[in-house]
């Protein structure tokens, strides 16, 4: 899983090192890169392994081929996605259009989200983090842990 938060910065050639723990997880899945796309929900980037974007593609393909929603999702997610391979030192080059979406100039945060991770401009993330914490506190009862553990027999 992608866990924790790591700060890195773009080097002079526009590359950034993906956190070692993230690369290790991806490597365990058989991948040497990430798929990256603009977030729908905020001014961050979302990144995942190839199998995750394939699941999303399958979900989009399951929509009626003549339904406008299919084209909207395919255009907004798949057409905006970029496959970024790691170089020999675990770095990627994030395209300018993605950096612009996230308002990233040089520093960025890699934020673990379980099956995906996000890439944020640090001050934007801090504002989001504070609001997310408040909302999570208000909505904490909606997490159904007890029911989940009962289903698993634990």
Entry summary:
The chain has 6 helices and 8 strands; from the N terminus they run E-E-H-E-E-H-H-E-E-H-E-E-H-H. The protein has 154 residues and is of the alpha+beta class.
Can you walk through the features of this model?
This protein has helices at 20-28, 50-61, 68-78, 96-101, 122-138, 145-152, and strands at residues 5-9, 15-17, 33-38, 45-48, 82-85, 91-93, 107-112, 117-120. By secondary structure, it is α+β, with helices and mostly antiparallel strands. The protein has one domain: 3-Layer(aba) Sandwich (Chemotaxis protein chec), CATH 3.40.1550.20. The strands form 2 sheets. It has a 6-stranded antiparallel beta sheet with strand order 1-7-8-4-3-5. Strand 7 and strand 8 (117-120) form a beta hairpin.
Gyration radius (Cα, Å) is 17 Å
The mean pLDDT is: 93
Find the CATH superfamily. Transcriptional regulator MraZ domain
CATH topology label: Chemotaxis protein chec
Topology order in helix (H) and strand (E) letters: EEHEEHHEEHEEHH
Quantity of strands, as a count: 8
Helix content: 40-55%
Strand order of the largest sheet: 1-7-8-4-3-5
Using the coordinates above, name the CATH class. Alpha Beta
CATH architecture: 3-Layer(aba) Sandwich
Q: What is the structural class?
A: alpha+beta
| Distance between the first and last residues' Cα | 21 Å
Q: Biggest β-sheet, characterized?
A: 6 strands, antiparallel
Keyphrases for this structure?
Chemotaxis protein chec; 154 residues; two-stranded antiparallel sheet; 41% helix; alpha+beta
């Amino acid at each position: 899983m992608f866990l924790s938060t790591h700060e890195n910065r773009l080097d002079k050639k526009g590359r950034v090192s993906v956190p070692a723990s993230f690369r290790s997880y991806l490597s365990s899945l058989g991948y040497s890169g990430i798929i990256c796309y603009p977030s729908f929900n905020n001014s961050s980037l979302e990144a995942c392994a190839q199998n995750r974007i394939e699941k999303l593609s399958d979900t989009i393909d399951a929509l009626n081929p003549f339904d406008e929603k299919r084209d909207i999702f395919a255009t907004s997610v798949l057409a905006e996605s970029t496959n970024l391979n790691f170089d020999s030192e675990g770095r990627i080059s994030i395209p300018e259009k993605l950096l612009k979406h996230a308002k990233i100039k040089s520093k960025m945060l890699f934020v673990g989200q379980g099956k995906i991770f996000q890439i944020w401009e640090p001050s934007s993330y801090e504002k989001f983090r504070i609001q997310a914490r408040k909302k999570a506190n208000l909505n904490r009862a909606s997490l159904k842990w007890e029911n989940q553990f009962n289903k698993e027999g634990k």
